[in-house]
Amino acid sequence: MDYVSTRGKVKEIGFMDAVLMGLADDGGLIIPKHIPQVTTETLGKWQQLSYSELALEVFSLFIQDEIPRNDLKELVDNSYSTFRDPAVTPLHKLNDELYVLELFHGPTFAFKDVALQFLGNLYGYISRKTDSIIHILGATSGDTGASAIEGVRGKEGIRICILHPHQKVSKVQELQMTTVDDANVLNLAVEGTFDDCQRIIKELFADVDFKHRYHLRAINSINIARILAQTVYYFYAYLQLSKENKTDKLNFSVPTGNFGDIFAGYLARKMGLPIHKLILATNENNILERFVREGVYEPGAFRGTYSPSMDIQVASNFERYLFYLYGEDGQAVSTIMQQFKDTGRVVIPADKLQLVQADFVGYSVENEESLDTIRTYYDKYNYLLDPHTACGVAAADKITADNEVTVALSTAHPAKFDESIQLRSIEQVFPQQIQALFNKPQFQTVVGGTNNEIQDQLEKFF
After folding, report:
1. Range of 289's domain?
2. Does the predicted TM-score (pTM) go above 0.85?
3. Which residues fall in a coiled-coil region (predicted)?
4. Which residues lie below 8 Å from residue 205, measured CB to CB, with a gap of 6+?
């Protein structure tokens, strides 16, 4: 399987080189040159597979023979053996029309573990096989940081630096990152927003000399391995519901800020998974919902919400979707992204907007609406949603039509956002692993939001 850049100016590379490159050297994002197709017959054969067995089959389509199958199986098995539920991503039925896909059973209680346990092990494998130096640089709006650190902490030959917006993540998210005292981990608390952190990361990776000098590797969803890993649970949910004959009109409602999780669903559908509607659920930072509704991609005023991991105005995976929206035309994508850089705005023509609205249905969830949804579902089903999942459930309630079934992706354990949940007078018992964090010392460095300040920290660390 060959991989190319969304901007068309990087020669074709293999899977492992694509993982190591992270952000393409021309500033674009890496995507597979061809999307493998999955037939109805294949889906039937996959129906009885465990999650790890299914992941092996999906990964094999994109990796082919570059990693021997036995090695890939070991990577997959090791990655998902760390999950607390044997199903890895179990489905929880709330009613006949709504299921919750619980993606939070990994080590850090967040959906990011599904991809980052695998990517951490994959980086270790590539480092050993190629004798490569792995210096990971990432930004987080909350969950990616802890999941990435957990995936590589203590691993020989790997160092990781994570940027997070200072005092703009939940307390549990902060503790999960900053209580780690391993020598190969550096936490930088950036004075600014997640968009500032993400911009710094993309600009440092775009500095090809700096990137190569310090052997920088990406752990954010700009890394294609993250997206491929996330496609698996769409297939898994579909296959579980196919056993109940509930897949005739099956929707997925996806809380999203960076467009990675829902792009994985879009990729699964392009592979042949018969998804009826992809419901794009945002919070009040609704640049993506406005794009689906109006065809205008333009950051608005930043809003701090009860779902902070979605407090994002510039979605890094949006460019991957543009590539397919514009018929895999790298030059067109380059022109659009340059226009966005110059003007801060992208407007697509009416014919393209029709295609967008065929691909996605958008819904923006107001701050209080997310908390009301948590309260309603707790009272009605004795089931506690975190505020991000509540956005997905609220969107599902609005969009799901008669004779449709929706799977809402549950992206985090509610214990990670207790500050928000307490606002609806709900008390919860923390898992022991989370409760223990409050008694640990923290290790982080607060820095300004400039490239130079981050570069100085990286040069000392790497």
Report:
1. 91-107+225-424
2. yes
3. none
4. 22, 23, 137, 211, 216, 218, 222
